[in-house]
Structure formats: structure tokens, C-alpha cells
Amino acid sequence: MEYKPVIGLEIHAELNTKTKMFCDSLNDPDEKHPNVNVCPVCMGHPGTLPVTNFEAVKKVIIAGLALNCQINKGTFFERKNYFYPDLPKGYQISQYQKPLCQNGVLEIPNPKSQIPKKIRITRIHLEEDAGRLYHLPGKDYSLVDFNRAGVPLMELVTEPDFESGQEVRKFAEELQLIWKYLGVSDADMEKGQLRIEVNISLRPEIPNSKFQIPKLGTKVEIKNLNSIKFAADAVDYEIKRQTELLDKGEKIVQETRGWDENKKATFSQRSKEEAHDYRYFPEPDLPPLKFTDAEIAVIKEGMLELPVQRRARFKEQYGLPDTDINLFVASKSLGDYFEHVASELLSFDKLAHLKKPPVDEQGKLFKLAANYIITELKRMAEAVSADPADTKITPEMFADLVVRVFHGQISSSGAQTVLKEMFETGVSPEKIIKDKDLEQVSSVGELEMAVDKAIAENRQAVEDYKKGKEASLKFLIGMVMRESKGKANPQVVAEILNQKLK
Ligand code: ADP
Ligand code: MG
Question: What is the pTM of this model?
């Protein structure tokens, strides 16, 4: 028997609103101390009343629209009742019967074909987060921090459409990007702003048969996965574990498991019997939520660019290769920096002191800029944990350098020196090139003497080259480069050498 993995995700993301979901305590991910952003409402004091934060509602609608969801124009909150020390009210305000968004879809690359795979989104609903417990090693008490209690949280649930850890990874990465791009969540997994739960079962399959076993297998839920990689690894581990059990004729137990990153294995946490009855009922302290089509249209109109749109635009506008585009989309700050440089190259307003390259060579300029941003700038900025935009190299200076490289005024190794110097000092390329005497010599007149000298002093290499040894030309170019102290334009040198040795 073969098995087909059946996997569905439940993903929680904290929204990056200014204040909490039902009160005006701040929603600050960088709190320095516990229990500073709390008030009687989020502490669940008797007699207090919640008030809906519409910034949060709007963000969930935006998230839903981005995933092609249907938006429920009439909905309401419900109470999910359970006791836990991090839940001051003894219930969580959530949505159950009618989520804000439902029936969406997100496409992910399909390893098996060119046509992307569609992952169906069951629902996205809005709720509030709980506080955080700290279990101190060796102590017989725990501490609780309520800063997070009442922070707006959206929960997204997918249909069981995934088949592998790889697909789960692709989906989660794209979702994380989408939420960051739309500004609905910072989606930082290290800060617990994005949390993934994986549901997984195996379905026996008869190889090469058109008959499918109708029922889904018993599922296992893996909770508290705090990195996308762990989620993907946990999926792959469970596929193996469940396959082995089924092959031995054993049954899968419906249970919640955790991921042990040290052992690279899942482990049982609790079984189905301990499942909660949450006794959901409509929240009596909050009015229902109602929207018009016009209101939703206005929200849609104001939506920021999605990663998928940026990919298409970068391809069309700048003609960059996919690997560059993926990098500029995955790192929005790097992509933004590239766009600023590109806009300087296009307008040429601040570059008027330089010779303007022909319009049909613009693609080459963009590619040059992309190369230096992806290799040099990215590395230097990361080394000091700075955003590219916050470095001393302005997009204008960067564009200036790119044009000089294009014209051959400076060599590629010279450009690296200039970039390093600009990064450290913020001095203009023009001044650095002058001060460091980096200008590349491209005039035939100036280079001819050095070429003649190399030919005269290296007769053997000349003979070898004439006999067809290509490497000897490289050697001769190297000799000229050395003579010029690295300032000669190697392409021009090669041309003169070719001419003279014909
Ligand atoms: P529960 O009530 O146990 O939380 P749900 O029906 O709400 O279960 O589904 C939770 C998640 O589990 C969804 O992402 C869904 O796609 C997925 N799921 C449901 N049944 C299965 C199954 N048999 N195997 C794998 N995933 C499943
Ligand atoms: Mg569940």
C-alpha cells in the first residue's frame, strides 16, 4: 500500500495595530517590562466593557481580500470559554460560526508542474491573544505577563490541501511575505507573532488506480511550531512516522504532538480525550459587525502591492532575472532600495553631470545596479545589521557609480573599492575615484605603450598564443594590468593585443 499525505494548517498572526483588540492599551511588540500595557478591560475586571478596534477588523479584511476570500458583511464575535492562568476573563473573544473571511485561495509553486498549486483557505477569523506564562526552572511557581493579553490575533485555517513539508514551507513563506507587504502583521516568528499548527494524516492509496479511498485518515496535530523550517521538518518526520506505523498494521492515535528540535522528532503531548468543550456563544457585550460593499471596495482600493504583483512588475519594468527578483521580493527593503536607484537611473535628473547611456541600454544599467546591490550592498548592510536605506550610500550615489561602471570609467574591482569607501564615509563616487586614483584607462593611445612593453618582454607567451594557446592571451593581459597598476581597462587591452598579434 502507498500513502498520500494529507495536511492542513492553522496559522495565528498577531496584528500590528497601535492598540489592543478591545481596549486602548498599547500593542507594543518591543515592551521592555512585563505587565506595562494592561488595563482593567484586558485584565478582565468585572464591570468593564470591550470596544471593537476597527483598525484590526480592517486588517483582517485586507488579509482576506489578498487571499481572494469572500468577506462576510454581517458577522459577530463569540466567547470561547476555557480556564487558563494566562486568560484573565476565563474566555477568549473569538469568532466561530461566521469568520470575517472565508473560501479563499493562495497559489504556491508546484514542484510537479509549471501550473501553480492552489491551496484553499477555509477561513480567517479575528480574536484576541492570551498572555504569556513563564515557567522558571527550579521554581515552584510560574510568572505571567499580560502585555500580550488582548492583542488582536487573526487565525487562518486551510483545507487539507498540502502533501509535503516543502509545500507547507512555500505556503507559510508566501503568507508571511503577504502579511508583511500589506502591513497587517510584522509576522516575526522569533517574537511569536506568527505561529503555525500542522494537521497531518495519511490516506492509503492503491497505486495506478482511479479509485480513491474516500475517508481521510486519523490526523495528528503538531502545535507550537515557532519557525517555518520546524513546521516543514515536522511534516516530513510525521509522514515517515505514520507510514511506518501503518505499514506495521498499527493505528494512528488522534493526538496533539510537539516538535523537539534537538531530537528532530515529534513527541506526544496530549490525546483526544483531553479535548475541550469551549461552550461558544455570541459575545453579548459587543454589537455585531456589519459592512457594505462600498466600504469593502474602499479598503480594497487602498491595499498595498502584493509580493506576486511586485514579482510581475519587476520583471516587466526592469527585465531582471527570476533569481534577482525573488531576492528583491523576499527582502522588501533591498527591493525598495533597488527601485530608488532605478528611478535615479531613469530620471537622470541628479546624474546630469554624467553622460546619459542610450535608452535601449537601460536594461544593462538595471542589471548592473541589481548585481552590486545583491552582492556588495547586501553583504555590507547585513554585517552591521542596517537597513540598506539607512546606510551612508544614497540611491543617487549608487546610481552615479553604476553609470560610471557602465561607461567603463571604473573597473568592477574599482567599483567595489568605491562602494566600500562610500559605505564607510558617505563621500561621493567622483571624489573617491579622484582621491584614490581609481579611474580606469580605456584610451588606446594611453594603453598602447604598456601593451608593446608586455609583447616585447614576453616573447614566449606571444609565440604560444600564436600557436593557439588561448591562456597566453590572459597572461599578457595580466602583464599589462600589472604595468598599469590595475587601472587599464582589460577589454580595451584585449582588443589592442588581438590587433597587434594578428
Ligand atoms: P479540529 O476541529 O480538530 O480543529 P478542523 O476540521 O477544524 O479540525 O481542521 C483543522 C485543520 O486540520 C484544518 O487545517 C484542516 O484542513 C485539517 N484537517 C482536517 N482533517 C484532516 C485530516 N484528516 N488530515 C489532515 N488534516 C486535516
Ligand atoms: Mg484545531
Answer: 0.89
